[in-house]
Structures are given as C-alpha cells and as structure tokens.
Amino acid sequence: MQKTILILSLFGIISLNLVGCSSGGISKTDYNQRVKQINLGMTKGEFNTLFPEALQGGAKQYPKGVVEVLEVYVSYYSFSPTGNPNTYRNNYTGMEKQPFWFYFYNDHLVQYGRPGDWPQDPDKITEIRQR
After folding, report:
1. In this predicted model, what pLDDT tens digit does every residue of 2-23 receive, in sequence order?
2. Which of 24, 57, 72, 105 is deepest in the core (most CB within 10 A)?
3. Closest CA to 28 of 97, 74, 85
4. Could you tell me the CATH number of the domain that includes residue 68?
5. Which domain holds residue 98?
6. DSSP states of 73-123 as a string?
7. What's the CA gap between 89 and 20, in Å, rounded?
8. What's the domain count of the chain?
C-alpha cells in the first residue's frame, strides 16, 4: 500500500513539473519559424492565424486611428538567468518567458520586437507618423 502511494506521489510530482515546464508561451524554434512569415502591413486577422496565442497587451485611440499592441511569449530553458530585464524566470524550473510586442495601427502591423526596442515616447512617434 505504501509503495503504491509513493509511486503515485512521484508520478504526480513529475507530472506537475512537466506541466510547469511546458506552459506559458511558444518555443523559440516555433516562434522563429512563424516570425519569418510576418510582413509589415499585414492585418491583425492574418497575424492571429500565425499567432493564435497572442494576448491583447493594450490599445490607445488617436485622432487618426487606433494603436493596438499584442503580446506573444516565447518560452525556453536557461541553465542560469540571462539577465534580460524583460524576461520572466521560474527559478525552480529554469524556464524563462520573453515577451514580444506587435504594434497594429488601424488594424495593420507597423512594428514588432522586444519591449524597450524603441524610444520611450510612443505618443510622439505616433503623432509624427500621422502627419
């Protein structure tokens, strides 16, 4: 009886660890394959067919249109912390998640990359683009 309980407990612990390692984003390989298919100017609907797991990151209304940001998280294992300030790390499993942001202006992709890749004043950039 105790042996059965021990085996079931070990199986449960291993299952929880595997679930924890596999959830929370797409793999780097999968992301790299999909991002090759991205074109600036593609619609949000076309983007969602490539990245159905994208999360709504935010939106803002401007006089000439709407800016929307979608987030995609890329998960990977790292033996030691990478030190990237935009990466979320699970120190127990060694899994890291890195967000990538996709900016849509009036339903069309205008830029994408990691947080912090562009200047800090997006309102000024959007205002200049609208002129």
Report:
1. 554 444 444 444 443 443 444 4
2. 72
3. 74
4. 3.30.1450.10
5. 2-130
6. EEEEE-SS----TT-EEETTTTEEEEEEEEEEETTEEEEEESTTSS-S-HH
7. 12
8. 1
